Give the backbone structure.
Amino acid sequence: MALLEKEDILRGLQKINARAKEAGMIIDISIYGGAALAIAFDIRRATRDVDAVVRGAPDFLRKAAAEVAASEGWPENWLNDGVKGFTSAHEKMRLMEHFSVSDSGGLRIYTPAPEYLFAMKCMAMRPEGIEGSHDISDIEALADIAHIGDVETALAVVESFYPASRIPPKVRFGIEEIMVRVAKRRESEPDSGRLP
């Protein structure tokens, strides 16, 4: 399957935005994972799909996404809600400014704050390369963006979004390993890795 780059994702979303405006519908969509890393943080160059949760008009969005897939030659599930199981009841989202919603309709697109996406990636934490996963390298990059510098802070961030009882031991151990590596990297790059 071809990867979707930032420009592809934005083009697909703009096409759905135009259809929503034509239909006079306002649709809220939250985008997570690799797509959020690409369009909101410029961390990732490409992703296999766009993980999203829709609030309002899911049938309309499904149809519009299928039409975009057909016109672009993308897989039908390029926009999917497989991320639902990893969202938090305490979401911290930001509205993207690229999309303008008027009273006549359009998309309102939200992406996670860096610390929320950090927590989500920690909870998913698939080994690097498995099913195309970049979770570990994404966690390291998000630690820099969110100014998370040590294990205790990292665990506190994750626990601010997910109950401690839901955090598996493998995630806690993984966070420890990753944050030790992040700290060592920052020590070896005194200018670029130091937190403000």
About this structure: The chain has two domains: 4-112, 115-188. Strands lie at 4-5, 26-32, 46-47, 50-55, 79-80, 93-95, 106-112. The chain has a mean pLDDT of 89.
